[in-house]
Structures are given as structure tokens and as C-alpha cells.
Amino acid sequence: MERKTKRMRLAALLLAAVLAFGLTGCESLKDSVANMLGYSSAEEVDTTNWAEATTDPIMLPEGTDATAQWTNVVANGTLYGVYNGIWSRNTGYFQVSGDSLTITACGTAEGVQEYKIALWKKVDGGAQYVDGSTGYIHTDGSNYRFTIGGLDPSAQYRLTISYDSSRYYLYGMFKAEGIAG
């Protein structure tokens, strides 16, 4: 009987070791798949860079569909975005006209108190998160602004609008001033 107990303990220990190894392998597998799909495995560092409240309005260019689920328009050196009922979206790639990008955004959501806008730089094989670029926007419908500095005008960038919930949707808009073209 004692031998059977030892075998059961050994089997349980072996099973626990296999599961632990498998779980650590999942992270590697996830990173490999993300890299193959063109996403960086780099994590966004939570700097809790809260955007500052502003009274400056976001005036969409004439003809922009403010009811679209997701749309982007470039006009006069500014990238405008509208989002209605999204979880996460990326803009297309763009270049900056100088070394900074100023983002003004507003949004509402059911059940979350903030969302984030982060900048990613195009690199061979995908995109790399720009350290310290995440701005956090309160979801109270007010306008907020933050600036990302230290950018390279010859590089290509994209913005990611997201929030940490797959249960509720995000509604709002942004403008990113300092776009080339």
C-alpha cells in the first residue's frame, strides 16, 4: 500500500512539473506567434502618464463620419480618429513632422474609467512600443491632452487605442497634431 502511495505522489509531482513547464512554454509560444503576426512581444510599461484636461475642442474635418465604428482622416498635419464601439484599434502608419506628437482625446465607456493611447514604431518584422508613450485618458467625455517627445521624423509610427476590458465598448475621438504630409 505504501508503494502505491509513493507512486501516486510521484505521479502528482510529475504532473505538476509538466503543467508548470507547459505554462511557461505558453508565454514563449504566445511571443513567437505575436512576432510572426507583426506584433512586438514588448510589454507597454505602465507609466500611468495621465493626460491633462484641456478645453481645446476636437474639430473633425468636414466630411468625417463621426458615427463610424472606426475611421482615420489626415488633414493639415493632424491625424483624426473616431471610434464607436471598439475594444482596441491601430491607426495606419504615419510620419511625424518634428520630434513630437501632441494627442488630444476624449472618450466614454461602460464599466471602465480610463483607456490608453500608445505609440508604436515600425521595425523590421513588426512594431516596437515607444517607451513612455502611453497616455491614459479618463472616460468621462472630457478632452485630455498629452505630448510624446523624442521622435524621429524619418521613422514610421502608428497609434494604438485600447482599454483593458473585453466586456464593454469604447466610444470617442482623438486628434494627433504633428503629422507629416
Helix tally equals: 1
CATH architecture of the largest domain: Sandwich
Gyration radius, to the nearest Å?
Answer: 22 Å
Low-confidence stretches: none
- Strand share of the residues? 35-45%
* Ends distance: 79 Å
What is the β-strand count? 11
Q: What oligomeric assembly is this protein in?
A: single chain
CATH class of the largest domain: Mainly Beta
**Largest beta-sheet characterization:** 6 strands, antiparallel
The ordered H/E elements are HEEEEEEEEEEE
Helix content class: 10-25%
Strand pairing plus helix content: what structural class?
alpha+beta
List the SSEs and their pairings.
Elements: H1 2-36, E1 52-53, E2 70-75, E3 78-86, E4 88-90, E5 101-109, E6 114-123, E7 126-129, E8 135-138, E9 144-148, E10 157-162, E11 170-177
Antiparallel strand pairs: 1-9, 2-3, 3-11, 4-10, 5-9, 5-11, 6-7, 6-8, 6-10
Q: Can you walk me through this structure?
A:
By secondary structure, the protein is of the alpha+beta class. The chain is built from one helix and eleven strands; from the N terminus they run αβββββββββββ. A hairpin with a 2-residue loop joins strand 6 (114-123) and strand 7. It is elongated and about 80 Å long. The model has no long low-confidence stretch (mean pLDDT 85). Residues 1-22 form the signal peptide.
Please provide a brief summary of the model.
With 181 residues, the chain is of the alpha+beta class. It is built from one helix and eleven strands.
